[in-house]
Amino acid sequence: MNPSVLDDIQKIKTIDKESMINFCTDSPKHYGKASELAEKIQVNYPKPDNIIVAGMGGSGIGGELIKDWARNKTYVPIEVNREYNLPAYAGKKTLVLLSSYSGDTEESLGAFLDALRRGCMIFCVSSGGALLEHADRLKVPFVRVPGGMPPRAALPYLFVPALLLMEKMELAKGAKEELSEALALLEKVCKDNAPEKQQKNNFSKTLALNIGQTAPVAYGFGFYRSVAMRFKQQFNENSKVPAKWEVFSELNHNEIVGWERADDLAKCFSAIFIRDKEEPVEINSRIEITKELMEQEGVKIFEVKAEGKSTLAKMLSTVCIFDFASNYLALLRGVDPTPVKTINYLKDTLKHNKVREKIIAELTKQS
Ligand code: PA5
User: Fold this and answer.
1) What whole-number distance in Å separates Cα of residue 32 and Cα of residue 244?
2) Per residue in 337-347, is it b (16+ CB within 10 Å) or e — as a string?
3) CA of 59 to the centre of ligand 1 (A)
4) Which of 148, 233, 249, 337 is deepest in the core (most CB within 10 A)?
5) Ligand 1 in reach of 236 Cβ (< 6 A)
6) What is the pLDDT of residues 59-86, one digit of tens each?
7) Whose CA is closest to atom 3 on ligand 1?
8) Annotated catalytic residue, options 40, 139, 200, 253
9) Is 125 helix (H, G, I), strand (E, B) or coil?
10) What SS3 class is residue 198?
């Protein structure tokens, strides 16, 4: 691994062929555009009894962020669905937020079909595909987001419309206000972690360098649960490394025992603890004890201190730091962060079972 690559803009451009790092740097702009798009959304649904966000991978993580953000704000339960069908309770009083960037993901189309059959209230977020084709035909409300991005880079477009819809439907307050704080903070975080900022003054580059040849593990708590989950996805897809995520205090009831006799395995991992100056005392003590135990076992330990005042600003700014770090680790490893060869191979190879074809045939029969 050659750290000098991190500060060599020409070298960065040759490895990051499809400019994934630019999507990070431009994320405040994309969040702004996504808010404008979301402002135009009109839905005439009554308040639901429950909400299901149906989406996979880069299109599902927005739902996890919403679920954590809204946990202390809404009385409506939120579930993220990653199955081909919906849970038994889904019905006419369920709001299903269908999220698929391509609009062609098999599981998401399956969930869409199930939601239609059960008469759920549906709202789709996508750049097109079979999802929007059928949503349009069946007069299901949707927002068409800009295409041509890797789904994980399109997080602003997949997350913000659903977030602001919560406020529009009077299911949770404060989304708009928190988003505006988050946007201002993101501008700063993007500048501080931009490729032009030298590694010695750049937190994300330093984090990537410290992770080096290890598999990173993110430890979150409370609303940072989904941030830790996003961390794992980004290190998998951008850096092309195995990564894990865990959450306090559950990890104190199993994960920590795994480090007891990790022996040489301990050297293969880096633990990244998400910290917050307002973390509750019970979590603070748990983090300190866990860090000590893991350090004794030889695991590399790092901390990321969340910035911001509101829940949303804290969540999105930490996501942004990890997004940058996962791209910088890709550069250090000499891999292009954008392509996801294995996901594409899997989706292509699955075609032979004709499941997607059957789902689309069923969707076509819906009227
Ligand atoms: O990041 C990715 O490319 C994946 O995780 C996709 O988001 C996932 O496969 C689902 O596809 P889509 O986002 O098009 O529904």
Assistant:
1) 31
2) bbebeeeeeee
3) 6
4) 337
5) no
6) 999 999 999 999 999 999 999 999 999 9
7) 151
8) 253
9) strand
10) coil
